[in-house]
Amino acid sequence: MDVRAWAPGRVNLIGDHTDHTGGLVLPMAIDLGTTVTGERGGGAVSLRSTSDPRPAIVSLDVDDPATVTPDWARYVAGVVAELRPAVGFEGTVLTSLPIGAGLSSSAALEVAVALALGFDGSGIELARFCQRAEQRASGVPCGIMDQLTSAVGVEGQALRIDCTSLAVDPVLLPRDIEVVVIDSGERRELANSAYADRAAACQAAQAEIGPLANATPADVDRIHDEVVRRRARHVITENQRVAAFATALAAGDRAGLRAAMAGSHASLRDDFEVSTPTLDALVGEVSEMPGVIGARLTGAGFGGCVVALVERDAPLPVSNQMWRVLASRGAHVEPPS
Ligand code: GLA
């Protein structure tokens, strides 16, 4: 076996729908991820997955990744179309991530495939490259958070990322706080078209008042369209909450963390309108459990997962599937064992 590449998924602690307008996010890479193993060679990239009986067989001159089947092969095709490797690859994909649950299974796949195919560059370059692959594969104008977190994760630390400068500042997670991801069970069927719609509203806001990353509440109040104004208000208040959350995390300030997470969920629900009744109910239920510091929906919304910060070892009596996740290091090629 020639190559073994591993890439983590991510959970976003706070700062959703801010990356595509150059705002602040605070995710961490997690200890669930995707491994691609195999050998370079041949005239196609050919991968089998333990999650789907249908293989991905992608020719090196693939033209339109979005039309490739099965669905998961699109992400492989996106990477091949960006990288144009000189030789193919034959191997296997194994993942511990739930698929399509908001933990960036697609970003982990892209980053692991890119490394397996021989991508050579910095973490930021890898992230930019895989963001383009994702956009080509899915048609969704996603931001850079998922791919960047998977590429540059740091063990034991969350990452405060400025999506304008791409400056990444690790933020230490206190030892007595655990990060728990709880699956709502709802899958994100509407996410693609709704994501594009929300991103377009943010662009409309920027056309009217300039970059949202620098906008003030008074600027947002000037926006004429009521819906666009609310979308923009989410973005600028969410940027403020990321900064407040990072400060509270460093200080172990439970009340500050709880307020930022509750504010984020309410804003995603009311102003950005990407929550669902299922997510709202789960966040409400979990937030009131003993030992829970705060909870909110995480990622794009429209289903997927809730993230909670909890006091270490606090039981969370929900019947949903959940994972107590650890902040993990970013993607890498592992030496052959
Ligand atoms: C998806 C996108 C990210 C980001 C989140 C919402 O995960 O891929 O770029 O916009 O949604 O924060």
What this model shows, in words?
- With 337 residues, the chain is of the alpha+beta class.
- It is built from nine helices and twelve strands.
- The strands form two sheets. Strands 1, 2, 3, 4, 5, 6, 7 and 12 form an eight-stranded mixed sheet that branches.
- α2 (105-116) crosses α4 (145-152), α5 (191-209) crosses α7 and α7 (226-251) runs antiparallel to α8.
- The termini are close together.
- On the 0 to 100 scale, the average pLDDT is 96
What does the radius of gyration come to? 19 Å
Largest sheet properties: 8 strands, mixed
What is the helix content?
25-40%
The set of bound ligands, ions and cofactors reads: alpha-D-galactopyranose
How many helices does DSSP assign? 9
The unreliable regions are: none
User: N- to C-terminal separation?
Assistant: 9 Å
Q: Please trace the helix and strand order, writing H or E for each element.
A: EEEEHEHHHEEEHHHHHEEEE
Helix/strand class: alpha+beta
Broad shape: globular
Strand content: 25-35%
